[in-house]
């Protein structure tokens, strides 16, 4: 990918701090850096030497990109000192948002750096509100990444399925960020409503996620199981009911026809819908287990379920919509992660899990 020059139509490529160098941060920061923007990567100290030696790679997109000598830092004070950071790309898990906010504020205060825009590429509901409270609503750009991407090793991202990125309009630098993402090879769509974009992404994140993790079954098997299929459909219908009460309409995301999913849930006969979802969810995940399952299997001490199923339950309670299925999925999965509920209580026991959840309806 050629480097940007002063004669490029976009003229001034922004300088980014990539906060969270997992799959999403490596993908977006790597492509932006290869297109001529300056990408500074905030990395864990234990990964610094390996990434510095091997560079930052993104493959699975055409053309594959590599930053041979990436700009790496291990703390926010160094990141904001002697650099003019225009945008922070926040790509950490939702349970790390509060820590990231405090860390960014510390770096800005200590260095005396001006307030940059914050591009939030996190899943779930609630992160943007926390960021707006900390940094000002005008400085927070809401975004979603639909592209499926894996981190094969530190600094190396592989695109499994290219879809695109959604960016909500209105915040400082949102338009320029969208343009630069397009130049970097992404399929980008702008949205007037950040809420519609984020809740629509939430619907896709819920598919075969918590249920698969708790039961230790692939998403395709979850949807093929009649009772777990009912759990999934009820979780989605609860989410759609909360969205209606909030006045949030579903929107299509780049490469993801969310409105078709919603219409299918509303109108297709149950047997036809089950077959459609069993096939599409299995294909859409490319044979990979969902994120919640990987968190449990890898023994991670945290989970984002509170920002997904838990967010549906929280907002449902606030607006008077019953969400027992999402509430139970949130309770059980959080309990497993916290060590309060043995995973073996539900592993490979789909009937037990489904019966326990469905009786709450």
Poorly predicted sequence stretches spanning 5 or more consecutive residues: 1-9
Q: Whole-number radius of gyration? A: 20 Å
Q: What would CATH call the architecture of the largest domain? A: 3-Layer(aba) Sandwich
Give the CATH H-level superfamily of the largest domain. NAD(P)-binding Rossmann-like Domain
What CATH calls the topology of the largest domain is Rossmann fold
Can you summarize the main beta sheet? 8 strands, mixed
Number of domains: 2
Helix content: 40-55%
For the secondary structure, the number of strands is 12
Helix- and strand-based class? alpha/beta
- The whole-number mean of residue pLDDT values reads 93
Q: What strand order characterises the main sheet?
A: 5-2-1-6-7-8-11-12
List the secondary-structure elements in sequence, H or E: EHEHEEEHEHEHEEEEHEHHHHHHHHHH
What characteristic shape results from the CA principal axes? globular
Strand-residue fraction?
5-15%
Number of helices: 16
> In the CATH hierarchy, what is the class of the largest domain?
Alpha Beta
Termini Cα gap:
53 Å
